[in-house]
Amino acid sequence: MIGKTISHYRILEKLGQGGMGVVYKAEDTKLKRTVALKFLPQDLTRNPDAKTRFIQEAQAASALDHPNVCNIHEIAETEDDQIFIAMACYDGETLKNKIERGAMAAGEAIPIAIQVAEGLAKAHGRGIIHRDIKPANIMVTDEGVAKILDFGLAKLAGQARLTKTASTVGTVAYMSPEQVEGGEVDCRSDIWSLGVVLYEMVTGKLPFRGDYESAMLYSIMNDRPKLMSSLRGGIPRELERVVEKTLSKRLEERYQSMTDLLSDLKALSVRESDRLGAQGPAPGEEMEARRRKKSIAVLPFRSLSESKEDEYFSDGTTEDIITQLSKIGELRVISRTSIMRYKHSEKSIPEISRELGVDTILEGSVRRAGGRVRIAAQLLDGKTDEHMWAETYDRDINDIFAIQSDVAEKIAQALKAKLSPAEKERIERKPTESTEAYNYYLKGRFYWNKRRADDLKTAIEYFNQAIEIDPEYALAYAGLASAYVVLPDYAGLPPKEVMPKGKVAAAKALELDPTLGEAHAVLGAISENEWDWASAEIEYKRAIELNPSYPTAHQWYSQILIYFDRFDEALAEIKRALKLDPLSLILNSVLGNALYFGRRFEEAADQFRKTLELDSSFAHAHLYLGWVHVQLGQLEKAISEFEKARAIAGIGPYGLGGLGNAYGRAGKKSEAVKMLDELLRISTQGYSISYHIAVVYSGLGDKDKALEWLEKAYEERSTFVEEIGVDPVWDGLSPDPRFLALKRKMGLEK
Questions:
Q1: Which domains does the chain possess?
Q2: Spatial separation of the C-alpha atoms in residues 606 and 590, rounded to whole Å
């Protein structure tokens, strides 16, 4: 074969051989690139099952556009009917070769396992189970990127078996118990195999061993692996626990999804990095400077386009550059809501830098005309206002993603922030091939950020248009899910009506891209609304692991911590969010909420006033400041704040419950009844009002009616009813057995 040209591939050398194929290095004479050609052995060419598996490998792998899965270029046949796959050829070595040189340190093994888990999570999201994960099928490039090879034994979920023996194909040492038994396999079989690989990477030995195949099969089914720490010192106990869970023989005790395993691996990676950093040789001050995250704020890019309607495009460019920079682990990036407050500001760079607590500022402009876009960007030192980097891009609009990626990478270089190979690949990955779909996505984000009822509905229309053009656009599904999940709070719509739609959209987003923290956060909010608190916490933690710079995930997670009296944790979480988005009105107000629910009323009042100093027209802060005044017995002040909240929010139930409660407590029964009548009137327009009616009856001292309407709010899945365990407004009902029964139904009371 060496020297032959097959189709447009010139064979250069033989790379290796296995049971399902022979692999050659070749030159693609058309595109002038090096590729790997995998040929089905001639003795198997006429075997229908072998041929089907070989074709399935190409189909399975080519369906996965992921940086940790080997790229498949095409599948073809030679003139003599020999079938082959053309795929990417990487400079590097297999994980098998790395392990043969000796056991790896945990700090080296864990990042490789994370990358393999990310690739498999993508495969599992598409219903593809690899079934033959082993070191020989994992390539580690010279840049440290792990690539999963050989999907020849892959099985699509729900697909019929190829043959009876096809259920047990695989390499014995890495087989799961269910594979050994010839049973059905799912993603948990790949989890087992990855656990075996991780065990072998760190110890240099297999967890299940035998001198011959049947002995090894017996060991897999019956033996407990030796503790990793008994084979080699310095292995973190947390890593042992993770591997032990992957190798549980009972399926229900194993990790239930690759994303669950991935979440624990990433948390372990952070702890291991911190541990190694703490033990490093650098002196104290130098070490702190080295470990401290570099910080940056991206000011709103100015729109220089002739059309005022292009504002959404400049805002979207700003937000996407923030998103790209947030993928760099060594950077702390201020979130969008804080920087948008400087959109028309005349403040100096040093002033803005001090207010946001950042070292550097990126500013720029966008001009779009026809099919061209011109983006100018400059990086400035926050203290001195000195230029650190500048670039102007004058490109075709189709190059917008390349421009955003280049800006992020150039900033990382300018700030000397280390960019890992995996981070580089994530930054350079295009979210969609369609600029038209991207345009609709930007419009959806523009209106979503306004957080008003009509604007959210407009955002949903734009996200759906983006999806219609590109049904594989994961970010558009995530945006759609985010819009649905906030509709109950901002538009008063019944959660039962909109939450299921958000769940479908979020699940689709994660099927296309399991690494989207935003979609995991949405699933957390939906699990919360289903009273599934454990799942909500898992999803929020996963969202934070995947995107630590996403303040909304920290915010939503802090709220469920409050519901379970975990106030110290909740305050820490919301403060993390505020560090990322210090001028966010909702985050500042939610900090006030946490203090209010913790009965720290004076502190809460101060925090709400600070929020209103940022923007006196923020309804949420007026609403909860009103509730603080209620608890302090300052009912006239409470009524004033509730009226302000009501006037700002406009039509809908916002503020009506508080007003009715305060009127009732103040003895103004007729005024309280007017609030009940108004709530019942607007319920005919589709608003969810049961919780607010219960609040009014609580102020009137009618416990029976309050409990009756709380039950209705429970049936409606009102988002407000989640707070009943901690909101002081319900303190008068807390001893009532009916109230305790309601909390138990919601999982808020044991």
A1: 5-88 (3.30.200.20), 92-279 (1.10.510.10), 293-430 (3.40.50.10070), 514-520+536-582 (1.25.40.10)
A2: 13
